[in-house]
Every structure is written in C-alpha cells, then in structure tokens.
Amino acid sequence: MHGKSFAHRSELKHAKRIVVKLGSAVVTRGDECGLALGRLASIVEQKRRNLNGTLHELLRMNIVPIVNTNDAVVPPAEPNSDLQGVISVKDNDSLAARLAVEMKTDLLIVLSDVEGLFDSPPGSDDAKLIDIFYPGDQQSVTFGTKSRVGMGGMEAKVKAALWALQGGTSVVIANGTHPKVSGHVITDIVEGKKVGTFFSEVKPAGPTVEQQGEMARSGGRLLATLEPEQRAEIIHHLADLLTDQRDEILLANKKDLEEAEGRLAAPLLKRLSLSTSKLNSLAIGLRQIAASSQDSVGRVLRRTRIAKDLELEQVTVPIGVLLVIFESRPDCLPQVAALAIASGNGLLLKGGKEASHSNRILHLLTQEALSIHGVKEAVQLVNTREEVEDLCRLDKMIDLIIPRGSSQLVRNIQKAAKGIPVMGHSEGICHMYVDSEASVDKVTRLVRDSKCEYPAACNALETLLIHRDLLRTPLFDQIIDMLRVEQVKIHAGPKFASYLTFSPSEVKSLRTEYGDLELCIEVVDSVQEAIDHIHKYGSSHTDVIVTENEKTAEFFLQHVDSACVFWNASTRFSDGYRFGLGAEVGISTSRIHARGPVGLEGLLTTKWLLRGQDHVVSDFSEHGSLKYLHESLPIPQRNTN
Amino acid sequence: MHGKSFAHRSELKHAKRIVVKLGSAVVTRGDECGLALGRLASIVEQKRRNLNGTLHELLRMNIVPIVNTNDAVVPPAEPNSDLQGVISVKDNDSLAARLAVEMKTDLLIVLSDVEGLFDSPPGSDDAKLIDIFYPGDQQSVTFGTKSRVGMGGMEAKVKAALWALQGGTSVVIANGTHPKVSGHVITDIVEGKKVGTFFSEVKPAGPTVEQQGEMARSGGRLLATLEPEQRAEIIHHLADLLTDQRDEILLANKKDLEEAEGRLAAPLLKRLSLSTSKLNSLAIGLRQIAASSQDSVGRVLRRTRIAKDLELEQVTVPIGVLLVIFESRPDCLPQVAALAIASGNGLLLKGGKEASHSNRILHLLTQEALSIHGVKEAVQLVNTREEVEDLCRLDKMIDLIIPRGSSQLVRNIQKAAKGIPVMGHSEGICHMYVDSEASVDKVTRLVRDSKCEYPAACNALETLLIHRDLLRTPLFDQIIDMLRVEQVKIHAGPKFASYLTFSPSEVKSLRTEYGDLELCIEVVDSVQEAIDHIHKYGSSHTDVIVTENEKTAEFFLQHVDSACVFWNASTRFSDGYRFGLGAEVGISTSRIHARGPVGLEGLLTTKWLLRGQDHVVSDFSEHGSLKYLHESLPIPQRNTN
Question: Per the CB < 8 Å rule, is A42 touching B43?
C-alpha cells in the first residue's frame, strides 16, 4: 500500500502506520503553566493503552508521538534512553514529515490549535475550512487560520504536509485542543470524519459535496423560474427515458444485484431489484407528479391592498435545497427527483452503496431530462463515500432533509441533523379506540384492515383500546376470534391482563411499534381515558375511534392531538394518495411546517412581494398623509389546462 | 453558610468546600485493564492544576478526592505517606458522606457510571432522570438506574446522600464516565447545569419546570377546545386588568427599576420601565389580538370527499407548547400571552431577572384572566433561576421557541436549541438595489425612509447597491447629500471604493448589520449582479429594487430568494402590522413553516379529520368494490361577527 497516499478520507481507516504530531498548544495548558496532562492522556488513550505502557506499545506499532519542544514553555524533556525512537524535536513540522515518510507511514496527523486550512483570510466574509487540500490548489488559497498561530506557522505546516504527501504519506491537520473533541479527534480522523484539512494528491473526478450543494442551489433557483409547463415537461421526459432506456437501467441494476448477492438478505435484494413492470409503474407515477406540479410554485395565496398603488402578494416558492437520503430501493431516485423538479427545489440525493450502479444511470437520465430546459445541475447525486452524518451537518447548504427508509434511518438522521429540519416520522404507533357504543359489525372489519392488511406500514394499528363494558361481550369475542384466525399475536396491557384469568404475555412497553402481526390490547374506562392513553403513549401519527355515538366521536376528533384523527375508518387511510394529495412526499409527525400525509406543498414555502410607487412608512405615521387600507384582494385563478 | 444545604442548583457556584467521590467505574477503564488516566486527569484538570501538585493543593483547599478501592480491579493503591488526608476506602459511599459532613463541606459530588436517579425502573416507558430529589419523596420513587450498577448500589448511594444532606452538605450524583462530558462534569455541576440528580432538603414552593411544561400542555389543550369567543373574552379581560390594576403593576415595576438602578444602562432601564400610557396602548394591542383570534383555531382549510360517506377535513390547530424567551421589557409578557391564548397554545414564559417583580404581577393577572374559563394553567412563568440553555433542551416538552430580544439572544438560542425549532431571525441585512432606470425623485425618499427612520430595526436598510451607470450622476450626488444631512456614516464596498479617488473607509465585511446610522454602498453592473450580491451576502430578510422598468422589477421580484422582495417601497414595510396580518408574532427568515412577517397563523399547525362509516382500504384495492372520488368540497364560512 505504501508509496501512494490515500485519495479519500474514507480510506484512512486502512492506515497501518500513523504518526501523530502534537503541537505545543496541544501538550501545554491554556494558562501556559505546564503540560496539559488531561488532554494528553485522553488523546493517548484513544488507542486504549495506559500512560505507562503507551510509548513502548506505540513504538512497537510504529505509531510515534512527537513532543514539540521548540516553543513550549515547559523545559525540554530529558532524553529517555529507555525509549528508543521517541524523538524530542525543535524543527518540528518538517521533521515530523520527514520521519513519517522515512518510516513509510501511511498517515501523519498534525494536531495543534488551528482548525485546519481556510480558503480566505480568517474573519473575512467567505472564510471556510478547507476539507480536502490538493497540492495543485496551493497558489489559489490564502493560508488563513482562525487562531493565534500566524500565517507563518501555517505555511510551515502546509509545506511539511506537501512534502510528506509527495513521499506517499497522507496528512491531516486538525485542532487537538478543543475540549469537546480532543478526546476522540484521532479516532474521528481515522474513521474518515470531516475533521480539519485532509491533504490528498488524488483529486477526485467529480465535484465536492460543497460544490454540489452550490450547484443544486443555483440549479434549483433556475428551475423555480421556469414555467410550470416546462417543469412538467422535464418530468414527462424523465418518464419516457425510464421506459426507453429500460435495457441500460436493468443492466446496471443487474450489476448491483450480482455484487450484492450473498451479502444482502432476500427482502433487501428484492427491494434493490428493478424490473420492466417496476419501471413502467414508476413512469406512470412520474406522470401523475407532473400533473400535480402545474399549480405548485408561484401560486398566489393572499393579496392585500396596503394603500393606494401599494399591493402585497404572498406567493408559493420552493424551500430551496433538499437532501433526500434513501436506502436500497433505486426506484426512489426518479420519484424523489420528480417531486423536487415539480416543486422547483434543488436536490442532493444520497443513495445506498448497494445500488450505486442503478443510481448512477437513473441520475444520468434525470440530468438528461433536466437538460431540455438547461437546468441539468439542479439534481445532484452525492458520492457514496460521503458519510450521512457529514451531510447532515451542512446546515448552510441544505434547507430540509427527507429520509426515505426504515424508522431506524429516520431516527439516526434526526439525531445527526442538528440545525436542519428533518421531514418524516420515526414512529407510527397508531391506536384504535373501540367505544362502548361501537357497532359490532364495523369493529372487526376496521381492526382487521388496520392491523392485518399490511402490518409493516407506519399507518398500521399497534394498540387496540377497548372500553371496559365490552369485555366478555360477543363483540369482544368476535375481535379476538378474528385476530386468532389472522394469526395476530396479542400482547396484553397491564389493565387488560388484570381482567383476565389466563392472560397472554404482558406488554413490555405500551409505546411499541410492532410493524408485524402483533397487537397490544388495553382496556380503558372512558373516551377520556382513551385520549389520555393516546397522548401518553402515542406518536401523534393516526388514531381512530369506533363508535355510533356522534357526540363521543366529535369529542375524540377534537381532543386527540394527533396529525390524523379518524372516526369509523381504518388507520390505513393515512396516506397522501388516499387523501387525494397527488404525489406523496411522506408522512410528517412534526408540529412545524407540514403535518400528516404531505403532498407537494410540503416542499414549498412562501415569499412576500410588495409593489409600490415610492411608498415610505413615514407617510403612514400619526401625522403622515396616508392611512393603511389592508383590503383583501381577489386571488387570480391560474389557467390549469 | 454551612449547616444548611443549598436549595437550588444555581447556588452551587457558592460552594466553598467540595468533596468529589470518584466511583470505581470512573477511575478504571472500560476494558478493566488499569486506571483510566485520561479521564482521571481531565477530571482533575477541571480545577486547573497539574497532576503532580493536585493532591497537595486539593488538600490545602479541603477538596478531597476519594479513590474507591473496594471493588476495583486494580490493586489497592499503596498508602502515600506524603499525602496526609488522601483516603483510600472500602465502604466508599457512606464514608464519603461522613467525611464531607465532618469537614463541613458544602457540596459532595458522587461520580460513578450511573446518570443519577430515575423515577421508574430502567427501560420502562416513563423512566425519567430525576433532576432534584427531596428526602420526602424517598418512598415514592423506584431507585432505578440505566447502568450495570444494580439497585443495591444505588440504594447505598441514596442513603449516603441523604445522610450527607441531613448534615448540611448538598449532594449531586452524576455520571463521570461519559466521554463527551467527563472533561467538564464537575465544572458543569458547580455552574448549576442540570447534570445528574441534585439532592435538596428545601422543596421550592412552586412546581418544577417539567411540571410547568406538563401544565402548559394540558392547559393549552383545554384552551384549544374553547370557543373562539371564549378565548377572545380571556384576552379582553386581561386587557381590562392591565388598566384596572395599573397601580399595582407600576408599583411592582418601580421595585424592578430601583433594584436595577446603577446596574443597567439608561436604554435598558427605559425598556424595563412601564407607564400608564404604555399599559394603555398595551391594552389596545391586546384587544386587536382578541379581534384577530376569532378565525384562528379550528378553521377548515380543505375538505375532500374521499368516497361516499367518507369525508376528509384539514383544520387548523395550535402548535402545542411555546417557549417564549424575552429580555428586559415586561410589556412583552401580556402581549405574548395574548398571542398564545388567541392561538390556543400552551405557553412557557421566561423573562429576565431584572424584570421579575413586573413579570410576576403581569403573569398573575394573565392567570386571573385565564381563570374565567378554567384554563389558568395554560400560561406558565418559568422561575428566573432556570437557565435558558436547560430550557432549550426540553425537546419532549416544547414544540417551538420564540426568542424576543436582541439578535445576540436569538443566535444564542438557535445554538442552544438542538432539536426544537426556533422562530425568528438573527440577522436583518436588507438591501436596496438602485437600478439604472430608477427615478431620481423616488430614490432619495426610499433610501432615507429605509435607513434613517429607525436604524435599529431589523427591517432597516444596511447595504445600498447602485448600478454603475449612476455613478457621477445627479441622482448619485443627491443620495450622498441626503445621507450626509442625515449623518449616515458610509462604508464603501471594494468595488465602490475602486471607483473613487477619495473613498470613505472600506467595509470590513459586506455581511454586516449595522443597526445604526451607518450604510454600506457597493456598485454593481446589472440587476443580475445585484441579485447575486444579495444571495451571497444577504440574510433573506427584505430586499428592494428601485426602478421604473417593470420588466427589470419583475425579474428582481421573481429571482431574489428572500422572505420579502419589494419594488419601489421602503424596506420598513416588512412588518406584520403593516402587512395587515393583525397581531405580529415576529419575523421569520426560516424556510420551513412561517416565513417573513408572521401573524397568528404562524402559531398554528393543522390536523386531518376523517369521518367514515366503516371504511377500510381493502375495499379500494384493485379488485375491491369502491373507487376513490377525491372531490373537493366547499369550505363552510365561519360566522365572524
């Protein structure tokens, strides 16, 4: 492996020999009074060795910590004759580099109190940390830093790093003094996380994810200025390409399937595989999205006459740049792309590694379709080597994240995406409350459809709440019989269990999404108790009451605080298509922005346009000449052929 | 001070003598191979002493680390005769407590690998970490833990803690092994942060903030089920109370002013002070909010016939629980409370310490008004000792945070509020682009109003972009003359500076909100360059074009991607009242949920109500008996007298 440096951060985990160079700012304390033992020890412990044995063990593994003594305030350490190979140096940067290369080291980590390289002088408007630095870029950047280390110090570091790189050693320059990070900075770097600046000789062919974000932003802005018909045309063209280029798509998909065979379980393989019929129905879906896109961007929601010749308009506009993260299923790609195109949003797509061949061709076709109106760059496919966690941190670049996949994926992304809103739901714990005045005929039908039709769906029933009066009635027996026939495993809630002589297994938690032919049954004394139970254990997704009493039903509809509340209808209606929203973006349990099944409008926001002559607010002051009118004006109906 | 334990975490910073007890899980490594030196050293360094001198210095200050040796896998440390007072113990918990009390210690910090005390068995549905534990509660909780330490270990800890507490020593039990926290856990505890479980003998009179959150949630739910007229009544009643109880309010406000005198600057004192006229105009504002509240909650936005007898309705509902954080100005309180009441939301209010007397009485009056419809608890005033940062972490309890105050406050809260959306804007960098076809008469008027009328406002002008062709024209001279008369300090953008022989000071950053009589001027070559500049340096708040060319204007309106985009109108129109939205909640630059000036609807979300007979989705399958109709139904007009 040696002789060639690593091209990507994701390869750093393969480094066999690592040199860690700790700058004086790392090994000394902020108050300049001696060694920062805590920091030092926690850095050393990342390799899980105790302080005493560390040096010996590190040497044995060719990991050499270099203690900087040229500018430290502590007296130079006495040479420890017992530790051959531990070097106390003065010209630290270049020596570290030389040493790393001579030892045929894979990776040199230079820790000091600087974050890495910046592309502009520190403090300037555009100063951004450079994630990957290529030798060829040397002329074009200013070696700014955001710390007290001057430009000179940074230049020496860069020089040394380039020298090491030429010798085949990869380099990362990062901050080793940050209190919240220094305990795991080395581990993070080796795991490929975007910490500091990574020096790479191999410039990847494609753009960086930051460049892709900018392309999606500007491409999206162009897309938004097209006529609705033009956006629809792009989607129709993509639909055509999906069927026209079927053979190529299926060939790429075959490659993915071959590579995945034996490594993926059968259900995952099934989700990964495409077929002619899948492509056909995908094309039909796209044409539906095209149809519903006609009235999305630029719709006037409100018009107000503020004063004479001063008119205000609120119009729909795209949210901006979406990041959609999806697993396995490559058919997600054209679907999501069509939704973004229909709503005029820029899009970053992050698919799974297992579908990379399929995704690549589907993305090429999407860009081909976008080209017909010159907006090819609005949809970007992010390289599979980019970590989802890193993407979730690009809050300046991405306005909304939409995870498409398992609830585990959604949960992980909600955790990682600090600062960027995530649309979706991680849980669907749907309840059905069977009231004392429920109709015998309806209950069984509704429970069966809600639980058994497709138990893995997020809108499937998980907890059945039964009014106490129904216990030991024919209605109750009928439900239990049906569940037995359908082979639904019953878990008893604590109260239900206490009513039974022989109870089924008691639930571990009343807050469980089984996603399978399993159902929790609990007993409640009243509609109020049912509502309280739902508020306490539910996930605000979809909750249903079954009753013939309209008053009780309306009480339930009004008081249950969930995205969807139904009366005498299956939980499974909670779905964008069934709601008649046209294209479905997803189901949101958030209380901000879109809620419940989300159609295209969930990908839109609004802006306010004000058209005046030379209107100033001072004319409207107490002694001014004008008064606010605030008249509602009619909204023009758009021609939707 | 000794003899009485601390009542609140916020007092812990006054602790003079601290005993830190490190459990074996803290001092030994996860792999059970020796001492966790890194962790240990970083814990010790929180007191900023080097490892060698630490024990001596700690002893001198009566801070005694106790190394647990009864169950550790390392051999017991040899007694170090040089260090009198360092104790190696076997029965560690009770000994630590005894020692702490005997030494008249203020605070005993017990660090092990448990998070603290839980109120239910670990893993159960409701298990929550107990923030403050009172001796009287001992019977009612289960001493569950989430770690490998069994119940027995925890019971011993609690027993020891209660023993110490009786002796006048406060106790905190916390986790000292968490890699991201152990470096500053002691500092955090002493600073009053909510880490682990704090033992207190003094039960505060009021509820905990968690209990307040629950009260706001259930109170808000009740509020939402009232009739719109009832909510309006409450607000009217509050408006009456503000004038009726004027004397009491002003008396409380006088107390605040007296206590603040000499400690607050004049402008802050002014913001803090109330007056009869302020209360009167506040009451008028409240009545306006009451009026606009009539059509907020329960408004039907969409009705769809899904199938025969299956009708879907999308209705507006409150968001849930709002946390409003405001500084100085006590008049914020009734205003914000009225907005929450009008929109049926529960509310947690967090005011500044400096206004505590005023806030207390205003909150009492709010609750009095709420009582007329039995929803007193919907609005809660959080104790001033609660830290804003701690509140921003209560993501299970709060649905939306609204900061009301300086942009610094907004930025801090946006940073702290991981996981909870924040409504507002931290920056208002508004631009005005003067096109080559701008009218001479209009420009000066518009610039003056935008920049000079109220320069501290977020919608004031910060950057003037001038088309190159206008340089050295009468129009340009007229603008500069006006700015001189108005004493506006000009900062030149780099391009503008390059055109001038004698340039004013060049801008430090093109992304500056001056909030004062200062203005950046930059030159652009075209409307496109103006748009690019705005996208690069703006804050998406409000941006204006001045031109007589309608085509250019519409191009600008369509392409500028900001919340408010104006043509020939002052930036200062960007305001909820001026837009005719009724009550203003704030101005949002977010792209999710409300954007631009936000009225009451920004405090609302929607839910979906589906009313059926016994509808199941399987009837709509390919071979089913039913077909989806998806007919739009007319929306009933509500009676708004």
Answer: no
